[in-house]
Amino acid sequence: MADNSSIDSLKALLTNRNGLAKPTQFNMVFSLPAEINTSEARDLSIMCQTSSLPTRTVTTTDYAGTQRHSYKVPTGYTFDTITFTFLVGNDFFPKNIFDSWLSLSVDPASYRVRYVADYASTITIYQLDSEENAIYGVQLNQAFPISMSPIELGAGLTDQVHNLSVTFSYYDYTVVDEALLDL
User: Fold this and answer.
1) pTM as predicted
2) 3-state SS assignment for residue 62
3) Which domains does the chain have, with CATH numbers?
4) CB 134 within 8 A of CB 150
């Protein structure tokens, strides 16, 4: 038999915590590199359909020291890539933006790698509450696209729209200060 007091406790706790956060409530702010038309950054945010919050993994090494067994000690961090999915309109807007952005890191004609300042930018991801107020935010620092998914074409793909997935790498991320959460 279920313990109603724990259900009541959970309901009270969730009420005090303003309910549960929903994955559909998010917003993005893309800060594009200077060579790309930055007036269209807001449109990217609107067309973004999926994202995730970044993860940080502590890297370790085994340390034996004077102990009879080895144990792990931290040596630093690694950050996983993040993939965003965008709707693609008939003007192929996101595809054109990310084609341009990808060519900023490695020149397609000379294959020369450019400076980070030429191609990296910031992306801020906000979790929103049911009133669309930002309740949590992270800023990806020195973010840049590293790959795009293919856009499939086919006669049997009726009643479907194009989506474009773009994977980003970034140097690190910072949690946005609560005072800055007012969008």
Assistant:
1) 0.85
2) strand
3) 18-180 (2.30.110)
4) no
Q: Where are the alpha helices (DSSP H) in 2-146?
A: 4-16, 41-47, 93-105, 116-119
**Residues 121-156 pLDDT 10s:** 999 999 999 899 999 999 999 999 999 999 999 998
* Conformational region of residue 179, where left means phi above 0, alpha means psi within -120 to 50, and beta covers everything else: alpha
Q: What number of other Cβ atoms are within 10 A of residue 146's Cβ?
A: 13
Q: Which helix (H) or strand (E) holds 135?
A: strand 134-148
SS3 content of the chain, % helix, strand, coil (to 5): 25, 35, 40
Cβ neighbours of residue 45 closer than 8 Å, sequence gap 6 or more: 27, 28, 29, 30
Q: With CA atoms as reference, report the closest residue to 180 among 120, 124, 121.
A: 124
Helices and strands, counts by H and E, the chain: 4, 9
pLDDT exceeds 60 at position 1: no
Give the span between the Cα atoms of 20 and 81, in whole angstroms: 26
